[in-house]
Design a protein that fits this description.
CATH architecture of the largest domain: Alpha-Beta Barrel
Helix content: 25-40%
Shape: globular
Distance between the termini: 48 Å
Bound molecules: phosphoenolpyruvate, manganese (II) ion
CATH topology of the largest domain: TIM Barrel
Number of helices: 11
Largest sheet: 8 strands, parallel, barrel
Order of helices and strands: EHEEHEEEEHEHEHEHEHEHEHHEHE
């Protein structure tokens, strides 16, 4: 439920409302708008009588949120959530933001070189995994904390903020000391213990869609993070499993505009994991922008043939740079713009 306060309602009236809600074991989330204050009621509200709230002083009306995801829904919050990183870069504010880098951090030299190359091409955020969720226990599992240290040095050298995956609740504290954005991988989207620990972190969370999860399950996973206290969630469509075997996954392009309708959270697309094939990444990246994505996550490797993970879907820096130019053209064709790029002239 959402309680809309009257314009000009007082702090005392707001406090009275909150203590009434808390008194029946429910929590609140207060959003102070320019004209009005809106209070979200969080918790199991099945036996909660809205009429008791409607009559309180300062309350204009009570709205029931019909979606099972409440905090994440557009019903709850109309205006888009904008995430601001420490360097001032915003995600979800209109400009398109690109995260790029290798699947895994392999060594200090290559992560710095890749950071500089993607920055040169116009990328805004450096990605790289230190904790890798690999299907086989016999393949490269990532460098762990040494990888995080290398990624942090690459941030210093390039000036790009960093996004990296955290796989276990016990690593959340450590990873949040390094990362600007913490990534939840597809395989962990419903690891609720992990989601709850990320709810306590004061940094944005990039939540990938589980490869076997519906859009509703994905938004409910976001809800777990938000209900635990962290409202800075970026959703990432990275393909789902279907019967098709030519591609690694099937990119669910329609999920992008659908989730933008259902939720106020920013949505980005990862055509690298969605397709598994470098030749398919640029076309699907462009399609994602045309479909309304707020950004992209792209795997880039200096030498994809010898990459320790996901080489087949990684772009070489020169191909990535070319793709960025095309993204800029597509962005302006759909009335958007790529952060930091000159606007294209029509025609
Ligand atoms: C990744 O980003 O490297 C990754 C493992 O992605 P996903 O969780 O989408 O498979
Ligand atoms: Mn990968």
């Amino acid at each position: 439920m959402i309680v809309v306060m009257k314009a000009g309602s007082t702090k005392q009236e707001l406090d009275g409302l909150i203590s009434k809600i808390n008194g029946v074991g429910l929590q609140t989330h207060v959003s102070e708008g320019i004209e009005r204050t809106i209070v979200g009621i969080i918790g199991d509200e099945r036996n909660f009588d809205a009429r008791k709230i409607e009559v309180l002083p300062g309350v204009e009306r009570v709205i029931r949120v019909l979606q099972p995801f409440k905090l994440a829904s557009r019903e709850f919050k109309q205006e888009p959530t904008v995430i601001t990183l420490p360097n001032g870069l915003t995600i979800g504010a209109g400009g398109i933001v690109i995260m790029a880098g290798p699947c895994a951090i392999e060594d200090q030299r290559s992560i710095i070189e890749t950071a500089l190359a993607v920055k040169d091409a116009g990328a805004h955020i450096l990605r790289g995994g230190a904790y890798k969720p690999r299907t086989s226990p016999y393949t490269f599992q990532g460098l762990g904390v040494r990888g995080l240290e290398m990624l942090a040095i690459a941030r210093e050298e390039s000036g790009l903020p960093i996004v990296t995956e955290v796989m276990s609740p016990s690593d959340v504290g450590l990873v949040s000391e390094f990362a600007d954005i913490l990534q939840v991988g597809a395989r962990n989207m419903q690891n609720f213990t992990l989601l709850h620990s990320l709810g306590k972190v004061k940094k944005p969370i990039l939540l990938k869609r589980g490869m076997m999860c519906t859009v509703e399950e994905w938004l409910m996973a976001a809800e777990h993070i938000m209900a635990s206290g962290n409202h800075e969630v970026i959703l990432c469509e990275r393909g789902i499993r279907t019967f098709e075997t030519y591609t690694r996954n099937t990119m669910d392009l329609s999920a992008i505009p659908l989730v933008k309708q259902l939720s106020h959270l920013p949505v980005i697309a990862d055509p690298s994991h969605a397709t598994g094939s470098s030749a398919l990444v640029p076309p699907m990246a462009k399609a994602s922008i045309a479909a309304g994505a707020d950004g992209l996550m792209i795997e880039v490797h200096l030498d994809p043939e010898n990459a320790l993970s996901d080489g087949a879907q990684s772009l070489k820096p020169a191909v990535f740079a070319e793709m960025m130019q095309d993204i800029n053209i597509i962005a302006s064709a759909v009335g958007r713009y790529l952060e930091g790029f000159p606007k294209c002239q029509a025609g």
